[in-house]
Write a structure and sequence with these properties.
By secondary structure, the protein is mainly alpha-helical. It is 72% helix and 0% strand. It has eight helices and no strands. The longest helix has 29 residues.
Length: 155
């Protein structure tokens, strides 16, 4: 017997079907992956895809995945750069954005303000901060290319 916390919730097997369907796009294959018999998988898939709760869950997850795919590392970087160029007014605001951008792209240590005078960003003008940011972007582009090259060699 299948139990559900609430009458409106999907069963475990239905949730497995939804996840498999989002991965494969194939109803029969998804039914098999969800644990339905291979003999009845096609008819079970048809039935499940007509089920209002299952359809709504598929639609909800598709929207969720679509939104998640829009928020990429590049999107976040572009937004920080937009804020830096268009919104930030003070050197402190720009420094905070540079720090956040550095965290996002994994180079926080390169722009972190140290007690060492040569790495101290607090006395830089807006123009000097802009140059620092552009330098970081060039460095990150090289790092991306290197990572992509490494991945190509692995595959």
């Amino acid at each position: 017997m299948v139990t559900r916390k609430n009458k409106g919730e999907l069963t475990f097997q239905q949730r497995k079907f939804v996840n498999a369907y989002l991965e494969t796009g194939n109803g029969t294959e998804s039914a098999i992956r969800a644990g339905y018999s291979t003999d009845t998988a096609a008819s079970q898939a048809s039935r499940l895809l007509k089920n209002v709760k299952v359809k709504k869950e598929i639609e909800r997850k598709e929207k969720e995945y679509e939104l998640a795919s829009l928020i990429t590392k590049d999107f976040v970087q572009a937004e920080y750069l937009r804020l830096y160029n268009e919104e930030a007014e003070s050197v402190n605001e720009k420094r905070m954005l540079l720090d956040a951008l550095g965290d996002t792209i994994g180079i926080r240590k390169q722009i972190h303000v140290h007690e060492n005078k040569e790495n101290d960003l607090s006395n830089l003008s807006d123009e000097e901060l802009q140059k620092q940011l552009e330098s970081m972007q060039r460095t990150q582009t090289v790092q991306y290319k290197t990572e992509e090259e490494d991945q190509k060699e692995v595959h």
